[in-house]
Backbone:
């Protein structure tokens, strides 16, 4: 079911350019790694090949890696992103649908939007980007996969240490008693209610102006602080506090690489920017890693 065609206004979306931090001492032995037995002449390879090669060699020697993902990782599964030409916020106002105020004002409208998303996501499956990240977890001693996505596709692909910063679309929470449950029904109805107390249920996701689960955020910040390499994949890096995790990793001396179709406000912070599809680049990065 598509949401009512009432929201065909362009959102006035803030897109603050985040200032890059001053560069920090280069203390990370993984980031500084230079392959002495490199089988290729790096200077003869095109930039993308060089970046993939360098990153793969760094990953091969890394103990602790953090990956931050966003909607771009699920785009190749057919799930719309939020921003950009085909993004959800192009046609729907975030403030009408993804804030606690919007839910308080019109829960039926918000549930209509989420029922539409649930039915769409329920028909989709993981793509080569999700699979490559699950494979990467198998070869890196400590890999934390921090995702802003609520679609659950990283878990479906087999990733085990997944930190869902913005919740999960299949989770519901009672607005009266706080009880949480997983429910994979594609359509929850107009005003779903709690089986325990009859209170109104809401989607178990994090809306604008709401705090992230402090335990999950703490684990994500720790992973960013401790990692030797951070991969930032398929996110516009405009939503906080997720976007700041790259700064945290940088402050800890990590090597940073971004994989995206286009540059983002965080690109300046990166050691490597790989422009292209996550579903094409990530499998190549993982290829031959084990
Ligand atoms: C590809 C690709 C392919 C495409 N391959 N790439 C500090 C300063 C200013 C404001 C704030 C601040 N701190 C907090 C705020 C307020 C707010 C915020 O960040 N606002 C900014 C927009 C300015 N943050 C919050 O409110 C957060 N809460 C919080 O911080 O609490 C404390 C607090 C509150 C208030 C004030 C101060 C402190 C909560 C944020 C919750 C975000 N929720 C949503 C909805 C989730 C539920 C749902 O799904 O319905 O999360 S909004 C939406 O954006 C969703 C996403 O997870 C999130 C990020 O989007 P993402 O993943 O980056 O997607 P896109 O579409 O933006 O980008 C896709 C990218 O992929 C693009 O770059 C493409 O190029 C790329 N791409 N195809 C590779 N194939
Ligand atoms: Zn309840």
Residues:
């Amino acid at each position: 079911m598509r949401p009512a065609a009432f929201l065909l206004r362009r959102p006035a979306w803030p897109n603050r350019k985040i200032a890059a931090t001053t560069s920090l001492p280069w203390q990370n032995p993984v980031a500084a790694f230079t392959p002495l037995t490199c089988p290729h002449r790096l200077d003869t390879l095109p930039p993308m090949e060089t970046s993939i090669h360098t990153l793969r060699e760094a990953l091969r020697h890394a103990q602790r890696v953090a990956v931050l993902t966003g909607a771009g990782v699920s785009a190749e599964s057919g799930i719309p992103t939020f921003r950009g030409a085909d993004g959800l916020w192009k046609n729907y106002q975030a403030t009408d649908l993804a804030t606690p105020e919007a839910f308080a004002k019109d829960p039926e409208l918000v549930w209509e939007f989420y029922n539409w998303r649930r039915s769409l996501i329920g028909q989709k499956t993981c793509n080569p980007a999700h699979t490559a990240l699950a494979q990467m977890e198998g070869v890196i001693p400590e890999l934390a996969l921090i995702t802003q996505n609520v679609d659950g596709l990283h878990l479906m692909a087999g990733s085990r240490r997944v930190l869902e910063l913005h919740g999960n679309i299949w989770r519901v929470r009672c607005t009266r008693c706080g009880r949480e449950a997983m429910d994979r029904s594609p359509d929850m109805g107009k005003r779903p209610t709690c089986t325990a107390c009859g209170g109104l249920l809401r989607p178990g996701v994090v809306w604008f102006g709401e705090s992230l689960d402090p335990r999950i955020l703490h684990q994500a910040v720790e992973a960013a602080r401790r990692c030797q390499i951070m991969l930032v994949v398929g996110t516009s890096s405009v939503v906080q506090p997720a976007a700041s995790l790259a700064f945290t990793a940088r402050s800890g001396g990590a090597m940073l690489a971004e994989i995206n179709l286009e540059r983002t406000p965080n690109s300046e912070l990166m050691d490597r920017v790989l422009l292209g599809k996550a579903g094409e680049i990530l499998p190549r990065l993982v290829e031959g890693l084990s």
